[in-house]
Amino acid sequence: MKKDIIESYNRISPYIHKTPVITSTTINKITGGSLYFKCENFQKMGAFKMRGATNAILQLSSEQKQKGVVTHSSGNFAQALALAAKNLGVKSYIVMPSNAPDVKKSAVRGYGGEITECEPTLEARESTAKKIQLEKGATFVHPFNDFNVILGNASAGKELLEKHSDLDFIISPVGGGGLISGIALSALAFSNNCKVIGAEPFAVDDAYRSIESGKIEHNLTIDTIADGLKTSLGDITYNIINNHVEKIIRTTEEEIIAAMKLIWERMKIIIEPSSAVALAAILNSKTEFKNKKVGVILSGGNVDFKNLPFS
Predict the structure, then answer these.
(1) What is the widest separation between alpha-carbon atoms in the chain?
(2) What is the mean predicted confidence (pLDDT) over 161-168?
(3) What is the SS3 assignment for 217?
(4) What does the buried/exposed string (b/e) look like for 84-118 if buried means 16 or more CB atoms within 10 Å of the residue's CB?
(5) 261-294 residue pLDDT tens
(6) Which of 89, 123, 140 is the last residue of a domain?
(7) What is the pTM of this model?
């Protein structure tokens, strides 16, 4: 596994940012721990997903690259695959639900992605992507349930642990599980005993319930401000999380907003609500992290400025 992550990292390095790790004395005082924020909000297109999308395309054959790639996504992975494809001279077909934010559709078009809109259901997204696959011969790249995507995402954990090899914990948000799966594999490969913990809103706590029940659970509601974490796990991500993630801490919407505001105010950086879930989990479980060294994955910074949760 270590060899696979290193090879993936070397493959994508020319096309991604090596994002900084920053600290905040104030937030350390508030939490009682030593926190190291891995700033994927500074990644190209504003989120960690650039890593996985790039690795997935680079693993395709020349013939596959000529026919292009297709995915379905309402946001960050749509932008990531479009930009990664553009950088590599590959055509991208992006299926987006009709209710996806205009700002995200505009970004995808700006990166050269050809958008096909569909009804805002998973069934419609999957069937539309399948139709494009058959018509164009394009290769489908899953936003998270793809091992090459996960290996690309693992590079963020590799960078963090190379800079701070003695972390006690790394905390990552959990949506479909592509990020935390990569982080967990990196912790196995590049640390001695660093435990990986997931952070998830109560409103969409499918990963927490999946670990509890021993099978993939789904969300009955998607009523959360953390719009990047509404997706349920896939079989690949579930297996990695079930075997290699210590546990998942759930957070309230109020805790997410407070954590997001704290990072904006104290660290002077822009993160999206999904990123704030990781710090929210630390803040509601302070005793667990007191006097510990904790890596915090800030997964992205793509914010709708017309719809901020605080004034």
Answers:
(1) 57
(2) 97
(3) coil
(4) bbebbebbbbbbbbeebbeebbebbeebebbbbeb
(5) 999 999 999 999 999 999 999 999 999 999 999 9
(6) 140
(7) 0.95
State which amino acid sits at residue 177.
G
Q: Among 124, 140, 156, identify where a domain stops.
A: 140
SS3 (DSSP) at 309: coil
Q: Which of 8, 74, 274, 285 is catalytic?
A: 74
311 is catalytic: no
One domain, residues 36 and 179 = yes
Please tell me whether residues 161 and 231 are part of one structural domain: yes
Q: Which amino acid appears at position 203 of this protein?
A: A
Domain extent for 180:
2-47+146-307
Position 1 scores a pLDDT of 86
Which among 38, 44, 49, 158 is annotated as catalytic?
49
- Phi-psi category of residue 214: left, alpha or beta, with phi > 0 → left and psi -120 to 50 → alpha: left
210 is catalytic: no
Could you give the count of Cα atoms lying within 13 Å of 127 in the half-sphere of its Cβ? 7
User: The tokens of 101 are what?
Assistant: 């934010």
